[in-house]
Amino acid sequence: MSAAAGDKPIRLAVFSTPEHLPIVRAAVERICELIGFDAEHVTRVVLSVDEAMTNIIRHAYDGAGDRQIDVELAAVGEQGCQRLRIRIRDYGRPVDPNTIRPRDLSDLRPGGLGVHIMSECMDTVEYKQAEGGGTMLTMVKRLPPADGGSAG
Amino acid sequence: MSPPSPDSPVREIRWVDQTAVVHVVGDVDLSRSTEFQQSLLALMDRKPERIVVDLAGVEYMDSSGVASLVKLLSRSRKAGAQLSLVGLGERVRSIFEITRLDTVFDIFATIEEAMA
User: Fold this and answer.
1) Is there a contact between A40 and B74 if contact means CB atoms under 8 Å apart?
2) Which among B62, B71, B99 is the nearest to A54, CB-wise?
3) Largest Cα–Cα distance of chain A, in whole Å?
4) Which residue among B29, B94, B104 sits closest to A43, beta carbon to beta carbon?
5) Phi, psi of B34 (to 5 degrees)
6) Residue A95 confidence (pLDDT)
């Protein structure tokens, strides 16, 4: 991680209320900028975190606004192959990781786009049942080389 | 038709004959998508022939906001109305591209182009 962003993981604990989403988005945006992501990649990472948290609020917590969501952001890897690792943990109803998959986009209907967005925008997306209950989502995004690289 | 809820990102609806020009302002995420969808779908009560949704005032939109527009698109198609989106900033355009919905919606740079 850049000197400006520090070397230690950044941890946020927020409530499962939609009112906290803009705060988390702002924090993720700033951290991505400090690490060195360009504007297009910042947008994609922020969107992925937002969609993950929206899914937790809606599905793991059934809309309850007083439950906890933990977000951890860490720069990992050596210079030249740095990655941003994001862990998002909830304590709600466990979700079978095998049932979470992007839907067919040719089917024009509202909803179900969040998992597609995360898969499209991040390099890896992994769900695991967390120890002690709930679900741990880990997403990783590589920092593109300084000489450019397409958004993906 | 009742005016948009104060909590809705739909700030103003201007009618020109049977065309509704809808101005949306602020972030459209989970905290406001319910009001957003209600405001949009309420438009259909007046049986518009054309709807132009101006997103120039929107900094951020998530999939719940996009889902509301997909629902409006579905309703407007069934009613034979034309739906256009205008004024998409880079961030908002990104989510339409990521979800491939930029090829489904009619997207224009300005209201004037959409009305031409």
Assistant:
1) no
2) B62
3) 45
4) B94
5) -65, -50
6) 75
